Amino acid sequence: MKQHLFWLLCASLVLCGCTNKQAVQFEKPVTQNRANTFLPAVPQMLSRPASQREVDVTVRRIFGELVIPQLTEDSFATGDFNGDGSPDLAVVVRPAKTKLGIINDELANWTIQDAEHFFSSPSGQRVVLRGRGLRPSIRANEPLLAVVHGLGSEGWRDSAARQAYLIRHAGFPPLRAIPSKGHIENAPPSVRHSDVIYESSSHAGFLFWNGSQYAWSPEAKKSTQRHD
To answer: I want to staple 203 with a disulfide (CB 3.0 to 4.6 A). Which of 79, 109, 172, 177 is the partner?
Structure first.
């Protein structure tokens, strides 16, 4: 009798377990709303305006006392002149009278260029003016344009930014940086999204990076048409 009750109890437990197993409901996974899973966008670093003190410090860091920066509001400009995504600096300077030998030294840590030895006209017809193969030489008291290529996110302010140019026939303020789009035809891909150094003086035109050096282009004269 006891054995019969034992087996009856086991059968009841098995039946009850099966019933409960069928009654179990598994929770469905929560469907994620993809619109809410995006992380907030990281704002891009904006290029803060340059101060005259920062410009002076940068020029002294690279050229020492060899050149004298012309520190006025319109004598320097900042922009991405060589199209590498890092801010560059362009500033009008004059050579120190007693330092021309050091400035013109072939082993100097900067490159001397003459903007008039290579320029591109606004019509897209490229004109190359070559000297007699002589390296350009800085002369006393002439205005120059010093350009410092930036490095990384800090650009020309980075203490490791040392790539610099001294450009003859180009230091004519007021200076400003403007996008190259619409000003340079047939530009190499590396500089299509760069800036040009615009000079709006009587020597109106702009300097642009052609992939290996800075070239000069005169400003296009607006044609006037007479309508009768």
So the answer is: 172
According to the model, what pLDDT value does residue 219 have? 72
Query: pLDDT digits over 92-101, tens only?
Result: 999 999 999 9
**Please, how many CA atoms are within 13 Å of residue 183, restricted to the half-sphere of its CB?**
25
pLDDT grade for 223, boundaries at 50, 70 and 90: very low
Q: Would the CA dihedral through 120, 125, 129, 133 be positive or negative?
A: positive
Q: Alpha-carbon Rg of the chain, whole angstroms?
A: 34
Distance CA 35, CA 189 (A): 36
Give the number of other Cβ atoms within 10 Å of residue 215's Cβ: 24
- Coil vs helix vs strand at 126: strand
| pLDDT tens string 27-38 | 444 343 333 333
From residue 178, give the alpha-carbon distance in Å to each of 38, 65, 77, 96: 35, 30, 10, 30
Give the pLDDT score at 119.
52
In the three-class reduction of DSSP (H, G, I as helix; E, B as strand; rest coil), residue 88 is classed as strand
Which helix (DSSP H) or strand (DSSP E) does residue 10 occupy? helix 2-23
120 pairs with which residues across the strands? Answer: 126
Distance from C-alpha of 88 to C-alpha of 79, rounded to nearest angstrom: 5
3-state secondary structure labels for all residues of 93-122? EEECHHHHHHHCCCCCCEEEEEHHHEEECC
pTM: 0.71
User: Which residue matches tokens 């860091």?
Assistant: 61
Geometric angle at alpha carbon 81, from 124 and 153, rounded to 5°: 150
